[in-house]
Amino acid sequence: MKFRFTLFCVGLLMACFIQQAAAQTLQVSGTVKSKSTAEPLAGATVSAVGTAQATQTDAKGNFTLSISKGSTLSISYTGFKSYKYVVNQAGTIQVSLEDLNTLMNEVVVVGYGTQKITKISGAISTVKGADIERLKPVRAEDALQGRASGVTVVSTGSPGAKPTVLIRGIPSYTGTDPVVVVDGSIQSLDDLNSINAADIESVNVLKDAATTAIYGVKGGNGVIVVTTKSGKKNQKTELNYSSNLGSQQVLNTIGVLNASEYGAMLNEGSVASGGAILFPNLSTLGVGTNWQDQIFKNAGLASHSLTARGGSDNMAYFVSGAYTGQGGIVGGADKSYFNRYNATANLNVDLSKRLKATVNTSFVNIRSAGVPENAINSVISNALNFDPTVPVYNTVANTYGKYSVSNTILSEIYNPLTQLDDTHNQYNTNKTYGKFELQYQLLKNLKVTSRYGYTNTDVTGKAFTPLSFYGTGHINSTLNADGTTKVGAHNNVYEVKTSYYNYTLENFANYNFNINTDHHFETVFGMAMAKVTGNSVSGSRQDVPFNSWAFADISSATGTAPNSGLDVGSYQYERRNLSYFTRIDYDYKDKYLASFSARRDGSYAFGTNNKFGNFFAGSLGWVVSDEDFFKVNFIDYLKLRGSFGITGNENVSPQFQRISTLTYAYGSGQNAGYTFGNDPTSIGATIASFKNEDLGWEKQQQLNAGFDLNFANSKFSLTADYFEKQISGLLFTPSLSLYLGTASAPTANIGTTKTSGFDLNLGYNNAVGKNWKVSSNLTFTAAKNEVTETNNGLITGGGYGIPYQSVTRFEKGQSPGYFYGFKTVGIFQNAAEIAGAPTQANAVPGDIRFADINGDGLISDLDRTKIGDPFPTFTMGWSLNLTYKAFDFNTFIYASVGNDIYRAYERNLAMTNKYRGVLARWTGEGSTNDPRNPRYSFTDANQNTRVSDRYVEDGSFLKIKDVQLGYTLPNTTLKRLGVSKVRLYAQVKNAFVFTKYSGFDPEISGGIFDTGIDRGAYPQARTWSFGLDVKF
Amino acid sequence: MKKYTYIIGLFLVSTFGSCTKFVDYNPQEDYQITADNYFKTAEDYHKMAIGVYSPMQWLWSIPVIGEVASDNSVSGGENATDNIALQQIDDYQIVANNSNLTEIWKACYEGINRANYLEENKAKLDFTGKNALYGEVYFLRAYYYFELVKMFGGVPLFTNKRLSVGDSNKFQRATKAQVYAQIEIDLTAAIAALPVSNSQQGRATKHAAQALLGKVYLYQDKFTDAAAMLENVVTGPFSLATNYGTIFLQAGENGSESVFEVQYSNLSPFYDWSNPGRGQGNLAVQICGIRNLTGTSPYASGWSTNLPTANLAAAFDAGDTRKAVTVLDIEAYKTANAGMNITYTVAPYKNTGLYNQKYLPRVGQTSGQVELNYLNNYRAIRYADVLLMAAEANNRMAAPNDVKALLYLNRVRDRAFGDILHRSTATGTALKTAIWDERRLELGMEGHRFFDLVRTGQAASKITGWVANKNEVFPIPQAEVDISGLTQNPGYN
User: Fold this and answer.
1) I need a labelling partner for B247 at 20 to 30 A (CA). Which of B166, B264, B328, B405 fits?
2) CATH number for position A156
3) Using CA atoms, how far apart are residues A33 and A10, in angstroms rounded to an integer?
4) Are A109 and A220 contained in the same domain?
């Protein structure tokens, strides 16, 4: 079957039949409906082929047209198969148009315009609103995971928190967040916490240079284009209500020692280090307390959403109101939560025949609270490391506190329940965002648009750190055992108010024209001004009355210590961009496609010699299946695509020659003070930084090659893309002559990286028999990254522990953010082995044997090497939607392969609890040679706990992310209720996880340097829920 | 319809025309103070001048190297790789990427650039006291260049402005003579401008500049000039402290014998371990301390480096009060002071049993991050040093004045022995040797020995491993050779 476009067909047929003389005229009227939904189609084109006679259906799908006898009537509607028949008599007809494969007809929102998907020669992934709505994600990115090929999402369990989102690999260390464009307004990934899933019409991910270059310096990390719903003209109000109520729980716990095992291990460790038996009577210890059972609570998840859309002759509207509330499973919903209220109004008004206005306004209120996460002092870390021999509740008479304390763990680690009790914070975010847009139809094909998009955010937060008792002698205790305050200790309340205001003002014109009917041009050109501002004031004060959250406020605190116990701070920033852009899309007979885009971008952060950068991209497409010579029946559609272009990344800060009057500037090693005799330090001044007038952007060259294929009667669709990215201009410190002194050298555009990869999307859509419908989609995403130049510099990133040990690095010749440490090769079984091995200071039998990577016969820091990579080699997503009569079953499975995890949640103090693996420790020659299980001793002269592959685990996983079973009520029941559709469903999110990782959750999100380091990360919960979707 | 066209047209023109100023940046938007905001008031100049002093504090390792590289002390430390930069110098296995040498190079040039920044802006404003202030600046620039020329020989020389990024890789080494000439110019200007005394202790004075210029002459064997210049200081307002030991106590800082001291302080404690020597504390103090010292002695513990040699201890005659002040024999001290309950860890590497008493860390003299904030000033130029330099100059100048030389030498010896029975009576070459030997005893562990041995041609005979025509100077930092293409000193390639 050859696919044809309505307009194109009409045009061709007109040309063919124009000579035919008119004969007898007949009046035909009728109703046009959709075959699948049986709903009337408003605005369908009804025409007599070969004549100028044409009309459109009204709101009820009705039309009337006079037509000559014997001529062909054509009824067409975007997204439906055209219907044609030869008219031989007047009368009324009922036409039900068949849905086309929607993918083929879809219109995709691209930069400053839309494009039919068939005309696109760049690389774009699309996730439809229906899929997003069905998943009911708290954040929209969750819906991209595994559904949009080329996008890697590492989710987090912390309510409302931002996941790691990578579009086509890791180009840089300066930030990998893609830019987010909501209805044309440029926002950031952080802003995706505010969008109600039910408001989303579609999400398109622009991946290659051809589609992103029009976003220039912002496009380097890819672009997520979110389109929200709008109303339709002449449509009666359609109301949708959906509700989802669920409960979340932790999937699993980590194996730590119970009290008896703990006692035995501590005895062993103490004796091995020359100490005494600590627990002479192990039999009294029992299993003790598993603190994980104490901190994890079931927490609720609820969402309600009511939307209405419709329109009259000259306006259309979409309004919605929604609530989403997610409690946290760590400590329960009163300690960590994310509650969001949304109100949205999207209005399209025809001010005149030529002038249209669009006003989108969304108001969001978010209330949230959190607990310490993914750090040595996190609640989870405390639960894993705290003493299992003490009971939950304090049983010691006349001592302070509800929960018990440990008398042996005296630093950092303390009772996680006390910590939860002492965690008090709340944040309130009010956010208004949207756009004002005017569109003026200057000429028939020339449309001028002016758009002002804005985001205004105000965040108010407060946190309170009470005085507390964590044990006598515990370094964090601020109270004595009897509840009296320790000398010099104070409680503290902290308040912060932060405001952000961002706007983008864009003016552009779209001009579409044809040359000789077969050469189609769609062009856009315009300019944009963008400004991002933020400011914050914060303060804290000591001595809150009654040591109570209820009284925690700076106004009530009574601090008297230096400066009345007050501490204040502030910051502000601003970024500005000025841009000019254009794009020309061309096609010849819809068969040969070409596109060219260009953007000239200026950023206030760039050096004076480099204020503006130019970005170009071009792409070519060829619809092979439209060629006459192409006669493969099995294949319905085949398009080859290729693109090349340049985008950028402006993650730089403006540089200037700063004067420092600091006594000491940390990190930069600058001081400008001097102390003459015993006078207080005199404040001096000095130049503290140089500036680089040539500073510019990170430049990305991307090559893309791919194809789109529909086969087996378009039941299958396959899209595949290969890409290569060369990134240059990463910021590194240049090597400057030392005689310039010690002022901070300005960073310069020096580093380079290389990324290549492969994205694939395979879809299947079919109806089997009368009652079955099947649709399924498989995505595959793979990317390989390598740092190719860093000016011999390297960036050490995330680490863990006390003392702090660094794990991740950004270094030449390696993949970004890789794990760096020692490789282990076993365990020293006896003294002879130690003597025979490369010199390893202080090793005794039972200690880990490290690899002598550089072969110098000495185990030293120089032997550290790559021990893991936190980013997956590839990820896959598979969705399956089955419908049988009124029942529907949906499932979504996501797999990530090749991502390593660094297990960093063990505190490793003598008295802290241990990971269960210690039970398999080396206990004598021949007992084990597994380097994960060295001998256990309190002292660790061999540094068995140094950063090594001992702690690296394979974090590959397969997650059943979503399982849903739904039932749609029969129409007959509904009609009596005045309801058009009701669907009830049960849903399980994160139903199962298959992984070898021993921790809670193999998805450890964070920046490039923190992804994959599990310091006690917040695990994703399994959610059981029931939902209801009603359409009126 | 027309009006809409008009409105939109106007809008387009106004925004397209809104020019590129939109993306210009002024640091003031971020409330950042930049060079543009400076040198508007006298106070700005004073602050900038204070900043010129700061890098002197970062030069803590020069006196340490001055001893470790000589026959006076060994590197010590925990093991052969601990404090590798000092080990290399001690063992004469010096490689050009030595971290201490690199830091010295950078710190001196930071000081020079800071001074030059004032030079660059000298004409912008006139104010009371400007002349004297610039006297300090020139003194400091001379101080930094002198440290460089002493350590490295001829170095890149620039004086007119603070270098910026564009000046990277633009300079080659000047000759030693050119650098000395500039030092003399600066010090001569400083002497003319500086007051005899300053209300704040530690600021450069006329006499400090004269003493430094005299020393600079001496290093060039310009003995007549040196004698004349130093005479100004000998007759200046200084006197030898009665008790030699008190000079190195906190109470003795900026005392009667102090001609110029690098001021260190614990009043602004810092904790930056990535740049441990760049605060206001004296890191040389921490590193020479006794390991794991406990008990009630006045000393605090440290890292057992820069340990005096038995050779130095043996050089002192019986009755010389300077011996106990210069070297601390910890076992003897422990035995003599049993009541202090002293325990300590024997220096694990190159132990001599002796410690640098003058600069040992002392209890209560640091703050914050204790290792980094010792307040002990570095006694850069003492009156006794000036006397001995003057003695040497008088002895070695074209028309020697041994009477004066002896007089000055014996003033030092009288104080050392607390009597007049140990006076030298030597003349001529014997007197010269006596003065040189006296310098070792009087200034032991104060960072002069290596430079004196090189300057006086004694290094080859006194220092094991020292190689002539190479070890007179240290290697130019490798990074500077690589980046700026400077010629390396002979023997270090």
Assistant:
1) B405
2) 2.170.130.10
3) 20
4) yes
Per-residue confidence band for A740, with pLDDT thresholds at 50, 70 and 90: very high
Residues A12 and A133 in one domain: no
Of A603, A667, A737, the CB nearest to B484: A737
Give the mean model confidence (pLDDT) for residues B1-23: 63
Per domain, the residue ranges of chain B are 289-360
- The answer to the question of residue A147 being in a domain is yes
Asked whether residue B58 carries a pLDDT value surpassing 90, the answer given is yes
Split at pLDDT 50, 70, 90, the class of B13 is low
As a whole number of angstroms, the distance between CA A855 and CA A839 comes to 11
**Strand pairing of A659-660 and B258-262?**
unpaired
Q: Which of B85, B81, B101 is nearest to B93 (CA)?
A: B85
Distance in angstroms (rounded) separating the CA atoms of residues A1031 and A859? 69
Which of A352, A669, A686 is opposite residue B48, by nearest beta carbon?
A686
The answer, yes or no, to whether residue A260 has pLDDT greater than 70, is yes
- Four-CA torsion B269, B271, B277, B282, nearest 10 degrees: 40
Separation in Å, CA A778 to CA A108, A127, A146, A765, B83: 20, 12, 8, 12, 59
Looking up tokens 């063919």 gives: A16
CA-to-CA distance for B377 and A1018, rounded, in angstroms? Answer: 52
Q: Which of B34, B29, B12, B18 is nearest to A604 (CA)?
A: B29
Looking at the domain assignment, is residue A947 inside a domain? no
For chain A, say whether B171 makes contact (Cβ under 8 Å): yes
Q: Which residues of B touch A581 (CB under 8 A)?
A: none
Structural domain of A129: 103-232
Does A200 share its domain with A212? yes
Predicted local confidence at residue B3, as pLDDT: 61
CB A347: neighbour CB atoms within 10 A?
17
Per-residue pLDDT reduced to its tens digit, A425-458? 999 999 999 999 999 998 888 999 999 999 999 9
- Per-residue confidence at A3, pLDDT binned at 50, 70, 90? very low
For A556-560, what is the mean pLDDT? 90
- Taking CA–CA distances from A680, the nearest residue in chain B reads B267
Contact (Cβ atoms closer than 8 angstroms) between residue A602 and residue A669: no
Name the least confident of A494-498, A551-555, A831-835, B162-166.
Answer: B162-166
Q: CB under 8 Å to A112, separation ≥6 — which residues? A: A184, A214, A506, A508, A510, A524, A526, A581, A583
C-alpha A178/C-alpha B83 separation (Å) is 46
ipTM above 0.90, yes or no: yes
Contacts with A669 from chain B: Cβ below 8 Å: 272, 274-275, 278
For all residues of chain A together, what is the average pLDDT? Answer: 88
Phi-psi region of A250 (alpha: psi -120 to 50; beta: other; left: phi over 0): beta
> pTM for the complete prediction?
0.81
Is residue A241 exposed (0-12), middle (13-18) or buried (19+ Cβ within 10 Å)?
middle
Residues A25 and A142 in one domain: no
What is the three-class DSSP state of A317? Answer: strand
